[in-house]
Queue: 2 jobs
Job 1
Amino acid sequence: MNLPDMIRAVQKALGVDVDGNAGPQTWTAIYNKICPGAPAPPVTTTSSTKKTPPPPTGDKVDDRSEKNIATLLPEVRPYARALVTKAAQNGITIKVISGTRTYTEQNDLYAQGRTKPGPKVTNAPGGYSNHNFGIAFDIGVFEGSSYKDESPKYKAVGVLGMDLGLEWGGNWKTIQDEPHFQLRPSWASDLSEKDMLAELRDRKDEGKAVYA
Ligand SMILES: [Zn+2]
């Protein structure tokens, strides 16, 4: 048996995509199998820079996720559904728990912990969050019906998301945001987050499509 055949056999046994090529998805599945319950180490992967083609439209997922997925741009929806499905194939239950927010909703969140009571939940006022443009969503890890705001599974899901071509908030250098995923438009591939947001605001003001 040659090496690709061996990898294919292992992938088949793990229930991941069988392509004879051990990428982050396979390694995450192997890791979870061999080290159950241990926190997954960050996986360095080249696949975050490689643009994968958009996944097919995708079958609908659970109702709570679908409600939030409906607030995303049509281009992003298949990615969100593919992530929920892919996580389930790897034995991890996730739901999309947050999607798009209007500037007003974002300003209300920003006011929390500043001019309104409660803890600070965001550093972005209206127009300064990727959630204001339909390109970003947050997931929650569930065990049974219970939501886990902290779990090593967020890192495993991060790897799966990058594999799909999504940008993962857990990779950010400043504020890491493991539940966060976004689909970067191709025109923004070399832009800083700040410059991308400026262009997104301009496009919104001008009524121009985000992914055009
Ligand atoms: Zn987010």
Note: The first helix runs from residue 3 to 14.
Job 2
Amino acid sequence: MIELYTAPTPNGWKASVTLEELAIPYQVHTINLMKNEQKEESYLKLNPNGRIPTIVDSDEGGFAVFESGAIMIYLAEKVGRLLPRDVKGRSRVIQWVMFQMGGIGPMMGQANVFFRYFPEKIPAAISRYQNESRRLFEVLDRRLGENEWLADDYSIADIANWCWVRTYKWSGVSIDGLGNLRRWLDAMRARPGCQRGVEVPFKIPSLEGDEKAAQQFAENARKSLQR
Ligand SMILES: N[C@@H](CCC(=O)N[C@@H](CS)C(=O)NCC(=O)O)C(=O)O
């Protein structure tokens, strides 16, 4: 049994989608980011970075894992699926996981901060992060023009990148003209495990077309943002 500490965000979904796809039983503990529960001393013992997600594996004497990429690798290795064992196959998956951890996640995250949450609108910062996110989307699109999935077969690399890229509208980044990326987004969204995973810890309403709800969400995020 895995204990999952999470919130409804792209990094949290990376863990819950992986758990769903691997069919591992897990218990969810919702961390309220608005109340800064991720910075409480008891939680910092599990995750020194004070962020979500975190897992605790009770089959392994309460072993805690933080950092979403490390969590995905741990779970895939525990079950022996979604991450090949051969050196090259494993490396190809980890390369695309790292691409998400070091590129897609930070760039889209900062695009959200400057485009949605900062009260001051700094056009150079907004366009820098949106343009870099778009450039990374084009890298994914090119790769997905060569292969159905990011690595050889469906893997944690697809889950890691999808959990972020699916929120492209919130970051204000277009996917126009990226037909391979769109094909892959649709294929991911059709998977039952992906559908279940992005409803953990609870289903969040779509903010699209609901300007009031989007403003409220951004306002809450702004309050909890540490600058
Ligand atoms: N590199 C970390 C990033 C985790 C992260 O930034 N989590 C966000 C939610 S997506 C969070 O906990 N934010 C609350 C905070 O910054 O205090 C990972 O991939 O696990």
Note: The two ends are 37 Å apart (CA to CA).
